[in-house]
Design brief:
The protein is α/β, with parallel strands linked by helices. It folds into two domains: about 140 residues; about 325 residues, NAD(P)-binding Rossmann-like Domain (Rossmann fold). Helices cover about 55% and strands about 10% of the residues. The protein has 17 helices and 13 strands. The strands form four sheets. The protein has a seven-stranded parallel sheet with strand order 3-2-1-4-5-7-11, sandwiched between helices. Strands 6-13 form a two-stranded parallel ribbon. Strand 1, helix 7 and strand 2 form a beta-alpha-beta unit. Helix 1 packs antiparallel against helix 3, helix 1 packs antiparallel against helix 5 and helix 4 runs antiparallel to helix 5. It is elongated.
Length: about 475
């Protein structure tokens, strides 16, 4: 009878902890036991590979001991980082961490094995092969396991904001993304029907355990097929490769082309949805001075992000001509399990947290739970229409964010990243990290919405 996965995961993690500790001990041995006799057999194997039956000069032997000592010190450092990554992967259940560990193993082992084979150091070759067998299977298993969303992880303990309302038939784009996946799962748990437009329908269907209808193209939807709500979240992540002209075109197409396809579908469908929820971002306002407070009436800013958001919103605006109530959410940096917060926290967890640039740039952020709450409220509150800044009431400087994270995680805040080299490498994309804007949720406050996580401290203590 197979062992249940809930008991296998701790065993796999424990195995990796043990492997990392063995590496630390091996590194200490290589560094400090060269003259003790413990390594004589290994040294003799290496000397035979390079010197054959000839007598090895004393200086040659000492050089081998010296090289092993240096390698041992490097191995100790690598092993500590491996321990840290195993700890983070276990705590955060983040498949990306297991993927990075696998990448490191696969970068090292084939090269080491090839070089050993060239010199016919067969013991080295077998040792590397054994290391691969020890490390890869648990890493692959953990990567696959943590990629799957088990029902206990997917079901939130807080009340489902979509429950209790009228039954809705929902069409969503970006349903497999960071916000979309949580929205779809809560809609399904509340008994609504969901259809997802996805590039890979099979992958999307597996993600939601076959509970959703997944289509690759809107042409697969019937002309008379009714939907009550459209949620348009589709868009490639803006943080990533440098914003070359080609990358800018990809980011624009991932948003505008999908929205225009939705508009074409809207024109031909005989049953118009009552509500269209449209994602946008506070990048609409461009880079602004930290002293300027921006409500929904503030003008569009300059730069690529402002143009991207403006084009995205404009492509969705014609929906209102068909009598569809439209709610546009200009999202700040969305914090939640995983998402944008995970890469921001990793340096702090490893003890290398600090401010970025001068730290004076403003971070306008929001907890994912609040985003979902506002989406759910839009379903039944017909007074919600138009554009809303989807940000928490408390905006903070990046330096204050760093200090808060250090306090919550009990880690030092000292490793400050200068802006100039990052701007030189990343170009305009560096604005995401070293510039900002002070955005306020004025219209949500006027509508009487109470944020679950109004302060950064509350959000970090929930998520960190």
């Amino acid at each position: 009878m197979p062992v249940p996965s809930f008991s296998l995961r701790p065993a796999m993690v424990l195995w990796l902890y043990a492997a990392a500790i063995v590496h630390v001990l091996a590194g200490l041995t290589l560094t400090w036991a060269g003259h003790s006799g413990l390594l004589d057999g290994y040294l003799h194997t290496l000397e035979l590979a390079f010197w054959g039956a000839d007598t090895v000069p004393a200086a040659g032997h000492e050089q081998q001991v010296w090289w092993l000592a240096l390698f041992g010190a490097t191995l100790q450092s690598y092993s500590l980082y491996m321990l840290a990554l195993v700890h983070l992967g276990n705590r955060l259940k983040a498949p990306a961490i297991w993927g990075w560990l696998m990448a490191g193993v696969l970068l090292w082992a084939p090269q080491d094995m090839w070089l050993s084979a060239q010199q016919q150091v067969w013991s080295h070759l077998w040792l590397d092969g054994f290391a691969l067998l020890v490390l890869l299977p648990p890493l692959i298993w953990l990567l696959r396991h943590d990629r799957r969303k088990s029902p206990p992880e997917r079901t939130v303990s807080k009340s489902n904001p979509f429950a209790g309302g009228a039954y809705k038939r929902v069409l969503i784009t970006g349903g497999t993304g960071f916000i979309g996946e949580a929205v779809v799962n809560q809609l399904l748990d509340a008994g609504h029907t969901v259809s997802v437009l996805a590039r890979d329908p099979l992958k999307a269907a597996n993600l939601f355990d076959g509970r959703v209808r997944c289509v690759r193209s809107l042409s697969e939807l019937g002309r008379d097929e009714p939907f009550d709500v459209v949620i348009n979240l589709a868009g490639a992540p803006v943080a990533g490769p440098r914003w070359s002209p080609e990358r800018q075109a990809q980011l624009l197409a991932s948003r505008v082309d999908t929205t225009e396809a939705l508009m074409t579908w809207l024109k031909r469908t005989s049953h118009k949805p009552a509500l269209w929820i449209q994602a946008s971002a506070i990048g609409f306002y461009g880079v602004r001075d930290a002293s300027e407070s921006l409500n929904e009436q503030a003008s569009k800013g300059d730069g690529f992000m402002a143009e991207l958001c403006a084009c995205w919103e404009a492509s969705a605006q014609p929906a209102t001509q068909f009598g569809v109530r439209q709610v546009v959410l200009r999202l700040g940096v969305v914090f939640g399990p995983g998402g944008a917060l995970l890469p921001l926290l990793i340096p702090f967890r490893l003890g290398f947290g600090g401010r970025m640039g001068d730290g004076q740039q403003i971070m306008s952020w929001v907890h994912r739970d609040d985003v979902i709450q506002v989406i759910a409220r839009s379903f039944h509150d017909e007074n919600l229409r138009g554009t809303y800044n989807m940000v928490a009431p408390e905006t903070v400087s990046q330096a204050a964010f760093a200090e808060n994270v250090g306090k919550v995680l009990k880690r030092p805040v000292w490793f400050h990243i200068p802006a100039a080299p990052v701007r030189a490498l990343a170009g305009e994309m560096a604005q995401l990290f070293f510039d900002g804007q002070r955005v306020v949720p004025q219209r949500l406050s006027e509508a009487g919405y109470t944020f679950r996580y109004p302060t950064l401290d509350a959000a970090l203590r929930d998520l960190a």
